[in-house]
Amino acid sequence: MTELSGGPSLPQERRVVTAIPGPKSQELQARRSATVAGGVGSTLPVFTVRAGGGVIEDVDGNSLIDFGSGIAVTSVGSSAEAVVRRASAQLANFTHTCFMVTPYEGYVEVCEELAKLTPGDHAKKSALFNSGAEAVENAVKIARAYTKRTAVVVFDHGYHGRTNLTMALTAKNMPYKQGFGPFAPEVYRVPVAYGYRWPTGPENCGPEAAAQAIEQITKQIGAENVAAIIIEPVLGEGGFIEPAKGFLPEIVKFANDNGIVFVADEIQSGFCRTGQWFACEDEGIVPDLITTAKGIAGGLPLAAVTGRAEIMDAAHAGGLGGTYGGNPVACAAALGSIETMRELDLNAKAKRIEEVMKGRLSAMQEKHDVIGDIRGRGAMIAIELVKDPATKEPNAEAAGALAKACHSEGLVVLTCGTYGNVLRFLPPLVIGEDLLNEGLDIIEGALAKL
Ligand SMILES: *Cc1c(COP(=O)(O)O)cnc(C)c1O
Prior knowledge:
InterPro entries: 4NH2But_aminotransferase_bac (IPR004632), Aminotrans_3 (IPR005814), Aminotrans_3_PPA_site (IPR049704), Class-III_PLP-dep_AT (IPR050103), PyrdxlP-dep_Trfase (IPR015424), PyrdxlP-dep_Trfase_major (IPR015421), PyrdxlP-dep_Trfase_small (IPR015422). This is 4-aminobutyrate aminotransferase. It is an enzyme of class 2 (transferase). The protein has helices at 23-35, 69-72, 81-93, 105-117, 132-147, 164-169, 202-221, 247-257, 309-312, 328-343, 346-367, 396-408, 433-449; strands spanning 48-52, 55-58, 63-66, 124-129, 151-155, 187-190, 226-231, 261-265, 289-292, 303-308, 371-377, 380-385, 411-412, 414-416, 422-425. By secondary structure, it is of the alpha/beta class. It folds into 2 domains: 23-76 and 345-449, Aspartate Aminotransferase, domain 1 (Alpha-Beta Complex); 83-343, Aspartate Aminotransferase, domain 2 (3-Layer(aba) Sandwich). The strands form 3 sheets. Strands 4-10-9-8-7-5-6 form a 7-stranded mixed sheet, sandwiched between helices. Strands 1-2-3-13 form a 4-stranded mixed sheet. A 4-stranded antiparallel sheet has the order 11-12-15-14, covered by helices on one side. Helix 4 packs parallel to helix 10 and helix 11 runs parallel beside helix 13. The structure holds pyridoxal-5'-phosphate. Pyridoxal-5'-phosphate binds at residues 131-133, 136, 159-161, 232, 236, 265, 267-268, 293-294.
């Protein structure tokens, strides 16, 4: 039997004992290059053996501080106790029947939890899938079945996945779309309230951007043709953009007034990541449908569409599903993950992470002009890097150099942003404050050397 040596019991310390990546990782990287398709990239090619709490241990014995959570997935930490306990028990009982053949309780329990946790006290139903992209695709299917309309509205800087329909929904060409078209039709993109780069300033951004978006929808598509408006309440891959205040409520009102299904894509921002169960709660938004994945199941592949019962029931029986959707082990992991979020009050932890990070990053910004903007909520925080704070010219080189410097010191950080100039921080919500500060020390050191 494999020794259970990861998870929260892993020593919570940074330890750099070789170059990063070390010799064993380099050996594995050579094997990988010979056999794994080149289109699948890695931020940092150190091969993992264990992970838990706020650290990732590699094959060379290095222990890295984790500011990535496998892209906002292991919010409860890798191999969290309740996730391992529940998923292991499920593994020993049965691994799969297919919910569409003979169902099981775990799937129903996850849907019950989703109904309780998502915003709004209306009757709700859910359907479970394997990946975020699959959830978004199904939200579109459901919205089209309900409205009997076809058009889908998305936003500048939006990211919704890598399948054909979700590539169409995604804004950024490289690396997500280049060479992979043609894309699905009836997808329309409108402006989003990106306060930092709004020509008339962040104060005016919310209402102005909403007016522009609504004008475009009305004039170019026709509201009566729109099945769904899909937006991330905090835009993830696009650069951790929090739509300026007032923007989301205006868009929701427009959707409600025009019989359009409003879909909040909370795949990255959901499940305590921003210090609330869902980021759209921040402005009191109640979406018609909400897509979730990433943080939902502590690292096992699970995704969901949750929403108003009458909308969710619009698709005919057999119209939704998939062989693995709502796999029993993934459902058990989700229940373990939700248990952990409640027990450890991970919303409070995320808020504390925001306080520490924003405090330290603001002090760094005073010394370093390269930090144009600090933004995000909870444990979803980013810095946008610029060549000159006056012109705000994006500085992707600085983002790349900082990320590289952090990696070599044993801190996993990710970049993002339409202009590739955003450094984003997504630590596990269970990270210790000493590790959090040590990670920030490394970022501070890297800035000084830039
Ligand atoms: C990651 C992500 C997706 C796609 O999820 P996958 O599980 O990678 O398919 C969709 N929407 C948002 C907002 C995401 O962050």
